[in-house]
C-alpha cells in the first residue's frame, strides 16, 4: 500500500472529497482603492524617477506638486513643529539665591 501512494502517509489526507462544494459569495466593493506607483506624482501622474518628493502625508509628488498647498496635504504640521521646538529648547530654571 505504501508503494501505491508516492506521498508521505503522515502528511497525506486520504479522506474523500466533499459531495457538494461550498459556494462563497464575496461582498461587493463599495469603494475602489487607487493603486499608486512609487515613481509617479499622485496629482498629475508624471513620472518622477529619482527626483520624486515623498510627502509626510504618504504619497510621492513631482517638483510642481511637492508643496502641501498644491496637493491638498492632510498632514498637520503644527503639532510636529511644536514638539520639535519643545525638545530643542528645554525649560531651564536657575537655582534660587539665598538672602543675606
From TrEMBL:
GO molecular function (one): zinc ion binding
Domain of life: Eukaryota
InterPro entries linked to this entry: AN1-like_Znf, AN1_A20_ZnFinger, Znf_AN1
SMART domains: ZnF_AN1
Residues passing through the membrane, by range: none
UniProt keywords, alphabetically: Metal-binding, Zinc, Zinc-finger
Keyword Zinc appears in the UniProt entry: yes
Zinc-finger is among the record's keywords: yes
All copies of domain AN1-type, residue ranges: 35-81
Known function: May be involved in environmental stress response.
Protein name: Zinc finger A20 and AN1 domain-containing stress-associated protein 6
Protein's organism: Capsicum baccatum (Peruvian pepper)
Amino acid at each position: 500500500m505504501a508503494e501505491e501512494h508516492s506521498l508521505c502517509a503522515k502528511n497525506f489526507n486520504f479522506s474523500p472529497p466533499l459531495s457538494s462544494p461550498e459556494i462563497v459569495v464575496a461582498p461587493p466593493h463599495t469603494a475602489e482603492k487607487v493603486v499608486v506607483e512609487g515613481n509617479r506624482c499622485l496629482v498629475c501622474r508624471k513620472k518622477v524617477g529619482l527626483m520624486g518628493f515623498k510627502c509626510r502625508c504618504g504619497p510621492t509628488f513631482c517638483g510642481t506638486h511637492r508643496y502641501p498647498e498644491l496637493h491638498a496635504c492632510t498632514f498637520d504640521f503644527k503639532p510636529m513643529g511644536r514638539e520639535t521646538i519643545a525638545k530643542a529648547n528645554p525649560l531651564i530654571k536657575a537655582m534660587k539665591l539665598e538672602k543675606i
